[in-house]
């Protein structure tokens, strides 16, 4: 699990592509501090496992589904990327709950400076927009941000100087693709609402034994 607070900006050293997969090596420093084989690191918001660790770099395997669903397939040697290690149990929760499981991508439609901040507007699909609410959280290339505006085509965030200086967001330009992960709370609520009327096995067993149902209780004033 991650928080969307980027620890450092790394650099892609090499990409070895297979038929439908890739091995990516990333130059880094901070995230290597206590990194072990098998540990998870979010790269542009994508949770990936460290499969080898060097003095100033580490490598990850990327499967076909990840390349298809994210912008990792667009990376090349020299590309800058946002990096965050999995959250430690004693760490501060500075952003929001981020799984590192990207829901899809969006396309930057505009970037406008507003005094010391920069407004970034991103077009994306209805499947992602339905979970986005004004003042809610969204993860963009691994960065936890607050949604300022949303409509039926796009949403906008305001990037403060600190975030701009410590992530890759302000290196982007209109037309660039970014990874998006919705706040998982909304997805859980939707699932519960879909299945909320279906009794679990224990409820079914109790109903069969007693004959008491929700309709029976309502009819009798409960």
UniProtKB/TrEMBL annotation:
Domain Lumazine-binding: 1-96, 97-193
Enzyme class: transferase
The protein's name in its UniProt record: Riboflavin synthase
GO molecular function: oxidoreductase activity; riboflavin synthase activity
Stored InterPro entries: ATP_synth_asu-like_sf, Lumazine-bd, Lumazine-bd_dom, Riboflavin_synthase-like_b-brl
Organism this protein belongs to: Anaerobutyricum hallii
Pathway: Cofactor biosynthesis; riboflavin biosynthesis; riboflavin from 2-hydroxy-3-oxobutyl phosphate and 5-amino-6-(D-ribitylamino)uracil: step 2/2
UniProt-listed Gene3D superfamilies: 2.40.30.20
Reported function: Catalyzes the dismutation of two molecules of 6,7-dimethyl-8-ribityllumazine, resulting in the formation of riboflavin and 5-amino-6-(D-ribitylamino)uracil.
Lumazine-binding repeat placement: 1-96, 97-193
One record GO biological process: riboflavin biosynthetic process
Entry annotated with the keyword Repeat: yes
Quaternary organization: Homotrimer.
Protein origin, superkingdom: Bacteria
């Amino acid at each position: 699990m991650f928080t969307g607070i980027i620890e450092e900006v790394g650099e892609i050293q090499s990409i070895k592509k297979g038929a439908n997969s890739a091995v990516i090596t990333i130059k880094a420093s901070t995230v290597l501090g206590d990194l072990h084989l098998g540990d998870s690191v979010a790269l542009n918001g994508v949770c990936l496992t460290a499969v080898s660790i060097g003095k100033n770099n580490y490598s990850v395997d990327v499967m076909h589904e990840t390349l298809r669903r994210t912008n990792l397939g667009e990376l090349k040697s020299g590309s800058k990327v946002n990096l965050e290690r999995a959250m430690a149990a004693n760490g501060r929760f500075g952003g929001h709950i981020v799984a590192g499981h990207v829901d899809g991508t969006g396309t930057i439609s505009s970037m406008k400076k507003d005094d010391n901040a920069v407004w970034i507007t991103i077009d994306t699909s209805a499947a992602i927009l339905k979970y986005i609410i004004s003042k809610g959280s969204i993860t963009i290339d691994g960065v936890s941000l607050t949604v300022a505006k949303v409509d039926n085509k796009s949403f906008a965030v305001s990037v403060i100087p600190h975030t701009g200086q410590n992530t890759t967001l302000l290196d982007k330009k209109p037309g660039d693709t970014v990874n998006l992960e919705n706040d998982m709370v909304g997805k859980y609520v939707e699932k519960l609402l879909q299945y909320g009327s279906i009794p679990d096995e224990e409820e079914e067993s109790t109903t069969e034994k007693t004959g008491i149902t929700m309709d029976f209780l309502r009819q009798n004033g409960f």
